[in-house]
Amino acid sequence: MKRIPKLLCGLPNLPRRRFIQGLAAGGVLLGVSPWLRPAWAQVTDTTTGSAPVLSGTEFDLTIAETPVNFTGRPRLATTINGSIPAPTLRWRQGDTITLRVTNRLPVDTSIHWHGILLPFQMDGVPGISFKGIAPGETFIYRFKVQQTGTYWYHSHSGMQEQTGMYGAIVIEPARGGPIRADRDYIVQLSDWTDEDPMRVLAKLKMQSDYYNFNQPTVVDFFRDAANDGVSAAMAKRRMWQQMRMNPTDLADVSAYTYTYLMNGTTPAGNWTGLFRPGEKIRLRFINSGAMTFFDVRIPGLKMTVIQADGQDVEPFTVDEIRIGVAETYDVIVAPKDDAYTIFAQSMDRTGHTRGTLAVRAGMTADVPAVDKPEPLSMGDMMGDMGGGMGGMDHSAHGGMAMDHSQHAMGAMTMGGGQVRARHARTEYGPGVDMRVDMPRTNLDDPGIGLRNNGRRVLTYADLHTIGGPLDRRGPEREIELHLTGNMERYTWSFDGLEFGKSTPVHFRHNERLRVILVNDTMMTHPMHLHGMWSELENPDGRFQIRKHVINVQPAQRVSFLVTADALGRWAWHCHLLLHMDAGMFREVVVA
Ligand SMILES: [Cu+2]
């Protein structure tokens, strides 16, 4: 048995930031030659950078542990066909495709085809769709491709998605589509940690702000005192403390442990897409991060959004896009100069990744500094303050008087278009540390950190799916569910019930349903309903956009329509991996 050689264990004392930003393109810099390869590395190193492309109707995918090195420290990744990202799968609408997935891991695995309409047995969620793929087993997925656009796929087992199991899917229309571009690049964003993801979760369980290094400091206090007076500054501190909340709690996991990747490449590795001046380039942004919202811009270039979550939208031109975990956005850009930086900073502003569009390999453009973090506002915490009624119930749970044993039909509309949320009885328990009574319903808010930054930032209010809703029926029924959590315990839930304590939500086959989500927490949750489209409405109940993931901002209420046309058992969850794992997950049964 060979030992891991010293070279790999003890690297020189470089500043920690350099490790975090990533030394190598991944697996390359150390040039692990065969004699240096540790015993576990029976296969060649993981391929990183642009993923290999597989197309056709038959696919063989093998899942294994393979070595990777993003930070100077070798680690084992969970990979598909030995690459990060996993191979890009190109399908054609109307084809029936067969995917043979072989598990060479010592534990169970699965692949979920994110955003794809298919029979539930093919959806790949262990315990709901099927039993998972055991070590040594090959599972055959087979289904007809009904839709077109940009999607992705990932493991739905354990923490495998965090350790490398994600790839892109591009589906061509059966007959050529209306979109013309000279180049077509996937830009897949993700987050990598050298830590065992289970240890990351364990740390958050012990201390939910473990990775938050942006906490208010004494300096902030004196600045507030100078600006607003000592008593106001004191009151502000007292308020946060009483609420047991922290205005800088923008992300659970930060660049303290994460290296952010673009197409499996660190910022130092600088993934590059080439072009010739005058060309139109289609960029397919996919957020495959486990826990990271990215704010993406290309300084010097406007981006015209043409698709969101694979669906054509009326073209809309912006400077910047916040891409929630698991969302996809396709944009067209028309570069003129020699080089542009594709810059993606994390929402909590602790780090970034970047790549370059250039006329020649090796070129770079200026890389902007990461913006300063913006603290959460009272509106983020308390909801709609317009009526001057305050929006949040932060009393200790227990003897609360309001007892709505279930969310009744519809919402109570207050004066001025405000909506009062109805909390389920199960929300008055230890799993919930905050309830918003007067949620905001605005879709034109780009969200924390992007307000008034001088750039035109995309919001859901800007997006309109071409062709309108798939189903013209109005809702026959409404379901209201609340996104809840207890920060101190690091538990996440729907209506105060973690998955293990919950029972399935029932949709009647073929009914048209309005789903209302109210976010009673101060984090944005990217909510993903499997198997069916979520058709987001504006606050007036008019159709806005068809999506597979809907970000619900802190203290916000959103509603969307669903046509329950997919029989079977489906997952419905927050796509932040650790929130899902900590309980923000429900089963939906369509029967
Ligand atoms: Cu969440």
UniProtKB/TrEMBL annotation:
GO cellular component, one term: periplasmic space
UniProt keyword Metal-binding, yes or no: yes
Gene3D superfamilies: Cupredoxins - blue copper proteins (2.60.40.420)
Keywords, sorted A to Z: Copper, Metal-binding, Oxidoreductase, Signal
The organism's place on the tree of life at top rank: Bacteria
Keyword Metal-binding: yes
One MF term in the entry's GO annotations: copper ion binding
Domain Plastocyanin-like: 63-174, 185-356, 474-590
InterPro entries in the cross-refs: Cu-oxidase-like_N (IPR011707), Cu-oxidase_2nd (IPR001117), Cu-oxidase_C (IPR011706), Cu-oxidase_fam (IPR045087), Cu-R_CopA (IPR006376), Cu_oxidase_CS (IPR033138), Cu_oxidase_Cu_BS (IPR002355), Cupredoxin (IPR008972)
PANTHER family: FI03373P-RELATED, MULTI-COPPER OXIDASE
Protein name (Swiss-Prot/TrEMBL): Copper resistance protein CopA
Taxonomic lineage from the root: Bacteria, Pseudomonadati, Pseudomonadota, Gammaproteobacteria, Acidiferrobacterales
